[in-house]
């Protein structure tokens, strides 16, 4: 079966700095993959490449079997047009550390905006779908609140509803709980966990080691722009092979 995400020999540079130095991994349909590793190892950059928020210079990313970000013309890599970028970006649903909701809009309008503007859905249909997902994340009662009237955990749940309502092939979570007060972390992790249990394909960058161990089918450990080790959580967490991962787990548990 075609993987939902396939990353082949991905390289990314910021100026002189090699941030991703040849990344290979796949995500099958319904799989939950957690990316762990020290700060600065390239986790966020990798996720941003999957969402086309970063250009990459070498290697290939396929979402649902489609190469994203560029096409080959007469043997040359050619960056695709913005309209095409927008279409391909919508194949993945990104949830950011800082929520990134539109502050002047209600929770409901934050969710309907992409549906009406990007998907061209009639407003009534978009509201119905938005209500479904707001209910799913436990935010239906607050659908008319603006972000400033919501807690961080509630804002993040709206952000999850907004991303998932667009029906992406895969959800990408970039440290979705890092900006939350400790007492709000659990409610967001529970939301993510329940979506995972329903079979949503996901890639999570996370510092929540226990959560990664519980929820993931596969864990990817990054070290200085490379994947140092990947495999099932039981193996990585209980029997880490590389000394780097052993050291990392000691400091982060
Ligand atoms: P992680 O998510 O593992 O903490 P990042 O992907 O955020 O790592 O960053 C990896 C490296 O890339 C770091 O050295 C960081 O400083 C650098 N980096 C990230 N974004 C940029 C950028 N926009 N411009 C220059 N350097 C960047």
From TrEMBL:
Q: In terms of domain of life, where is this protein from? A: Bacteria
> What is this protein's record name?
ATP-binding protein
Q: Which residues form the signal peptide?
A: none
**InterPro entries annotated for this entry?**
AAA+_ATPase (IPR003593), ABC_ATPase_HisP-typ (IPR030679), ABC_transporter-like_ATP-bd (IPR003439), ABC_transporter-like_CS (IPR017871), MetN_ABC_transporter-like (IPR050086), P-loop_NTPase (IPR027417)
Residues in domain ABC transporter?
A: 5-249
Q: Name the family.
A: Belongs to the ABC transporter superfamily.
Localization per record = Cell inner membrane
Q: Where does it mainly reside?
A: membrane
Q: Which SMART domains match?
A: AAA (SM00382)
- Topology within the bilayer: Peripheral membrane protein
Q: Which GO terms describe its cellular component?
A: plasma membrane
Which CDD domains does UniProt cross-reference here? Answer: ABC_HisP_GlnQ
User: Pfam families under this entry?
Assistant: ABC_tran
The protein's matches in Gene3D superfamilies, at most eight in alphabetical order, are given as: P-loop containing nucleotide triphosphate hydrolases
Q: Which organism is it from?
A: Halomonas salipaludis
Where are the coiled-coil regions?
none
Q: Which UniProt keywords apply?
A: Amino-acid transport, ATP-binding, Cell membrane, Membrane, Nucleotide-binding, Transport
GO molecular function terms noted in the UniProt entry = ABC-type amino acid transporter activity; ATP binding; ATP hydrolysis activity
Record SUPFAM superfamilies: P-loop containing nucleoside triphosphate hydrolases
